[in-house]
Hints:
The chain is α+β, with helices and mostly antiparallel strands. Helix content is 39%, strand content 15%.
Amino acid sequence: MSEEVSQELKAIIFVTSGTRGDRLLFKYPWERQQTDTSKAIPRNPYAVKVTEDFQRRKDHIITKQGVLAGLSDETKAHLLGVKSSLLCGKVFDLKIEEVRFVGFPVLLDDVPDSGKSGHKILSFNIAFVLQATHGPWIVSCYQDLAKQLTVALKHEEKRCHYLSTQAKIMTTVFDEVASLPEDMLTSPFETIIEKSELAKQLQQIYDNLNSQGLAHFYVNSWIEINFCLPHKLHYLQAGYKSFKKQPEFIQKSLKSLRPYHGILLLQSDSVLLESLPVDCTPALSRLIQVANPLRSLQMLALEADLSLFQVFQLVCHLVYWAKAVIIYPLCETNIYVLSPSANTHVSSKLVEDFTQQFPGKSLPVELAEFSFPTQLRQTQTAVNQPGSTDLKVRMVVWMLQRHLLIQLHQYIIFVPPVRRRKHKVSDETAKVQILADDWSIFEGGLQRSPSFSDAASVTSDESITLSTPGMLVAQLSKSPSSEFTTESSLVSEENKMYWMMQESVFANLTAEEKECIINVPAAKNLDDLRMFARLFPYFGGRNHIEEIMYFENLRRSQLITLIEKFKDVLILCTYQDPAS
Length: 580
């Protein structure tokens, strides 16, 4: 694990503003003082004292040890202390050179005084120090944690003056350390951690976020806070380098969720159910109990007696917390390949765990079958050993849970063999250019109007999920490209092809590209040409075959037949689905 990911959070700072001004009461980590004076360089008593090391401030605001340096505690207190009511109760984001301070300051003007004389806190702020290079996704995560923490502390201050008590402990330690002789001076933060419960919690938050990406604690043993950094959880679990560079991939993946997708739990359902909080919604428990990698989300919604919208929300929650991943339901036509980040060492712990789970089987041998993209039906175990399909599915599920395999999908791309010609355009091409462009068969894009047919299933004849009884099969709402109505009686059969080529779906094609489509032998059949025109918006490499089957309510055999007929202008590419 790289240091960039492990040390994402550089420091935590606790600042208060009150009757005694702005004070930095705690920070972690802090600068360690030199204890070995034998190697210290003697100072010249007549030298001019430099109050600020500008070069260090410029190049080393954050040291290699992760300590925030170059700025004095007084300067940090003035920067992070917020006294204005206009700025409190809002996200705090301050960038200084390569450092970013993220927080959520809170005003305590509506909190009754404890009645004790002394310093009164008017506002406070808990700031998380990050590298300024982090994107808005990471910044928003820490802003959310800062808001949860400061709001909880304000609540406890109203209830039992918890914040004032902890601040008093920290202030007392500062006064005690300041009264010590110069040769006995130590960092007050070491003593504060020993005496202050709040300081211990801030230290634990720092350590847990950097090491695990999780923070689960109770403020004053009363208010529960459960927080995670999803990009760090997924990176630590699977080593996905893309999440380190662009953590917003998770958000994009959740936005790409479709009813035909499935869910794969990364833990057993019993372990996952035990980890749920007491006040967890019963819907989540029902979904976990019926979760099956062979079934789509729409089928799980029926089995759990939940709406599809509820299932989407619960699945997004599980994926966010790295308890599950999005997959396409397992079927014989699924294509899998060995993950680039898979641990293939023959003596790894995964090999031992695999042997214990599947006696008589070897993990390196099973992984070798997926050295190249392979369909599940083509694996040697499924072919050579009849009746072993269930075992193979369980082994593939085990490998997917450990991120040893990745699933690939087939995408259709329109690539005509267009060649620039120096001679005059042919008569057929000229006819395509002259025909009027006044027929609007295809309107809109790939979006479907909301309807109850969203619960329809993928009508794949090879899909394992179709064998489940009680499944609701409904006709999908028609795609904008599914209707073809023309006044065919007004034109001859020969000219129908050219009228179709003038429609908006082919508007961006050149005359030579249109000619290539017309020259395909299958284009002479108007039914085949209509099907090609209907599916043409999907031939840009953004929609895989399973998605086309869902949107257009087609069988896989129909798509494969069409691709074979128009193989002169269509190619198949295999790569990952952005959603999974």
